[in-house]
Amino acid sequence: MTTDVVPVDLGTRSYEVRIGPGLIDRAGVEVMPLLRRKKVAVVTDDTVAPLHLDRLLAAFAASGIAATALTLPSGEATKGWAQLARATEWLLEQKIERRDIVIALGGGVIGDLIGFASAILRRGVRFVQIPTTLLAQVDSSVGGKTGINTPQGKNLVGAFHQPSLVLADIGVLETLAPRDFRAGYGEVVKYGLLGDAAFYDWLEANAADMHHDATKRQYAVRRSVEMKAGIVSRDETEEGERALLNLGHTFCHALEKATGYSDRLLHGEGVAIGCALAFELSQRLGLCSQEAPSRVRAHLRAMGLKVDLADIAGDLPSASDLVALMGQDKKVVDGQLRFILVRGVGEAFVADNVPPALVETVLSEALAARR
Ligand code: GLY
Questions:
Q1: Cα angle, residue 306 at apex, residues 19 and 194 outer, rounded to 5°
Q2: In the listed set 174, 196, 229, which residue is the last one of a domain according to the structure?
Q3: What integer pLDDT is reported at residue 152 of this predicted model?
Q4: What does the pLDDT read at residue 334?
Q5: Does one domain contain both 193 and 128?
Q6: One domain for residues 121 and 264
Q7: What's the pLDDT at 332?
Q8: Distance from the CA of 120 to the center of ligand 1, in angstroms?
Q9: CB 126 less than 6 A from any atom of ligand 1
Q10: Which helix (H) or strand (E) holds 267?
């Protein structure tokens, strides 16, 4: 299989997302043209390191590139001030200079954290994303959103800092646990739902065996990245169109807060439930057909994803408390709830005036269906 190359066009900050099998083993060759001297620093976590770090270091060694590595604890708690300080100081100790390259090897936590560390290190050094989860390959590694969580909320401190290259090795997705692959698929399906009905049709027909079919995986990652690259190049800092990438996310963020960001609900699972609820809400507003929400739910269900609030174990807050949690979302503008709604599959748009009472009704009915 060949490598697909998707350009992210951002003027002088343009870069490529390369997608294909075996890219970690070729990382030295891929990264070499970016280097001013043959030295890189890699940051990863203790889940990814045993699986992929040795291969990556061997690839750099084979190209004569000196590489040092730091392994952080895995998990969302790593994406905070403490590990940001640790990683940044480690990079300084490694004598990473302004013209050097930092490598982020891992999922969204490592990509966001090390992207931010690179943004602030010496007022900005270049970095390369090597995303190792489906979610990171199709979403967080592309587009330059970097940052950390604080006690006040998720991703409230950060910077737009675009990577210089993204190497999405689709071979590493084989090692993901089925639940993590499915959760990442929640973000893949989002692209079809928000803007490409033909891609959604393809996913309905092809996604069932994608986890272990490299050709299908590569196509799904490529099409997702093409869509994200197009949106980011037209609206890098989310003044408009980029908000469409948040389809399902207003519901998702409330549900993630309600479940304490625990493994009761993974982010991609929350996105899937959120997409189903966004279709339901759109249908209640008379924006899309009666059939559209059930079509979406049937596909998510067939993929083994969470679809309903009943799929979340344990207690959930009331509908009005969930709406209140949405009010704390960082996407709230002038106190108005912002939703991404749909006129059908592939036709999403931003809506700022959704009546909170209707959102509460949709959530009340979804909660009642749990009993
Ligand atoms: N994950 C949403 C964005 O990158 O804009």
A1: 55
A2: 174
A3: 86
A4: 66
A5: no
A6: no
A7: 60
A8: 20
A9: no
A10: helix 267-284
- Whether 113 and 205 map to the same domain: the answer is no
List the chain residues with pLDDT less than 50.
Answer: none
CA of 49 to the centre of ligand 1 (A): 26
pTM of the model: 0.96
Pairwise CA distance, residues 32 & 39, whole Å: 10
In the chain, the number of structural domains is 2
Same domain flag for 202 and 303 = yes
Does ligand 1 come within 6 angstroms of the Cβ of 265?
A: no
Task: Tell whether 159 and 183 lie within a shared domain.
Answer: no
Domain encompassing residue 35: 4-174
Q: Ligand 1 test: best mutation among 140, 187, 234, 267, most atoms within 8 Å of CB? A: 140
Residue 331 pLDDT: 60
| H-run or E-run covering 179 | helix 178-195
CA of residue 145 to ligand 1 center, whole Å: 7
143 Cβ below 6 A of ligand 1: yes
CATH number for the domain that contains residue 255: 1.20.1090.10
C-alpha dihedral (195, 196, 200, 205), degrees to nearest 10: -170
Cβ(145) to ligand 1 under 6 A?
Answer: yes
Ligand 1 and 26: CB distance under 6 A: no
Give the residue from 213, 220, 169, 232 showing the smallest Cα distance to 18. Answer: 169
Q: What pLDDT, on a 0 to 100 scale, did the predictor assign at position 353?
A: 86
